[in-house]
Write a structure and sequence with these properties.
The protein is built from twelve helices and four strands, in the order ααααβαβααβαβαααα. By secondary structure, it is α+β, with helices and mostly antiparallel strands. It folds into two domains: 193 residues, no CATH class; 96 residues, Alpha-Beta Plaits (2-Layer Sandwich), CATH 3.30.70.3040. It has a four-stranded antiparallel beta sheet with strand order 2-3-1-4. α4 packs antiparallel against α9. The longest helix has 44 residues. It starts with a helix and ends in a 7-residue tail after the last helix. The N terminus is likely disordered.
């Protein structure tokens, strides 16, 4: 057998392989390594797991640098607390003015020489006007008596030889009248015979409401400016964090990490800074209102009022924390979108 037998065996095996042809080769290829597709559940679990890791790692990094983080939170808290606190004060003033009588009333002071009969005739003619709801006559004797009872100077007023107070007509316009119609009614009463002066008692309240409207507009402008400032502060903070982790970002991109994978930890960093700033703002607003509560209660007691300052409450504080978190995400997104594209492996 020797070499001749071994040669014959090799030739037979070669012929068998040629007869098997492509099937044998395909069978051998199937026995090798094969590609596997990852299901959507596995991808979702990996995505959620990375979110958890990014959130925990970002919070740990923020808490590790406690001094810088607290300073950042205080700056953000002051920027958010200023418009919120002013808005709370304006809201309290608006609630207080709403409790006052908002019905317009015109005080028509008559001339000194007008007798009580003429005053009653004028009252009757004014009450018959279509734009007047009611006209009440207050004689000079009644006015002197009321003034003495309210002021406490009744004895001094009794010693006067002559009553210095004039007759008074209290005119209530119809509630359906607008400001221009009420002003026209005041001018008409001013021109009535025997009238000395017509005063619209609601002018001061209208001026107060106009000032409140202007203050709200200014507060809105200030709030927009401070919100933009908060976003810029957070963006600069995230930019510094990106620069400190530049080498880590380059390595992650070298091994195939996507931009979303790299962006995620910085977004959570902005979220934690924003939430902390919103929490500081809620605490500052609460402390400021608590500090003002005692003197405001004392002032209200002098006017026989039970008015109390009202803060944003628990829901307002939660809304402020949510707003801070959203601003943190916005600032982080802007910073990452601008600076992450400039970091590429070479």
């Amino acid at each position: 057998m020797g070499r001749r037998g071994r040669g014959r065996g090799t030739a037979e095996r070669g012929a068998a392989v040629r007869r098997a042809g492509p099937r044998a080769a395909q069978g051998r290829r199937r026995e090798g390594a094969s590609l596997s597709r990852t299901g959507w559940r596995d991808r979702y679990r990996a995505w959620l797991h990375h979110h958890r890791l990014s959130a925990a790692d970002s919070l740990a990094r923020v808490l590790d640098n406690a001094t810088a983080s607290v300073l950042t939170w205080l700056v953000l808290g002051i920027a958010l607390a200023l418009p919120v606190g002013l808005n709370s004060l304006l809201h309290n003033v608006g609630q207080l003015s709403a409790k006052w009588d908002t019905r317009a009333q015109i005080s028509l002071f008559l001339q000194d020489g007008v007798a009580i009969e003429q005053a009653r005739q004028l009252q009757s003619s004014v009450a018959q006007r279509a734009d007047v709801a009611q006209a009440v006559l207050v004689s000079r004797e009644q006015a002197l008596e009321e003034f003495g009872a309210l002021s406490g100077f009744a004895d001094v007023l009794d010693s006067l030889e002559q009553n210095p107070l004039p007759h008074l007509l209290l005119v209530s316009p119809l509630e359906s009248l607008d400001a221009d119609a009420i002003a026209a009614l005041r001018d008409a009463l001013q021109a009535a015979p025997g009238a000395a002066r017509a005063v619209l008692d609601m002018q001061w309240l209208q001026r107060l409401n106009a000032l409140l409207a202007l203050a709200r507009r200014l507060l809105l402008t200030l709030g927009v400016v401070l919100v933009v400032g908060v976003v810029l502060i957070l963006g600069n903070t995230i930019r510094l964090a990106i620069e400190n982790r530049r080498d880590e970002i380059v390595i992650v991109k070298l091994v195939g990490g996507s931009d979303a994978f790299v962006r995620r930890p910085f977004l959570y960093t902005g979220l934690w800074f924003g939430v902390g700033g919103g929490l500081c703002a809620a605490l500052l607003v609460g402390l400021a209102l608590w500090f003002l509560q005692a003197p405001m209660a004392s002032l209200a007691a002098l006017y026989d009022s039970d008015f109390q300052l009202r803060g944003p409450g628990v829901m307002g504080a939660l809304n402020l924390v949510v707003l801070g978190g959203l601003l943190g995400l916005a600032g982080a997104w802007l910073a990452v979108a601008r600076h992450l594209a400039n970091i590429e492996p070479r």
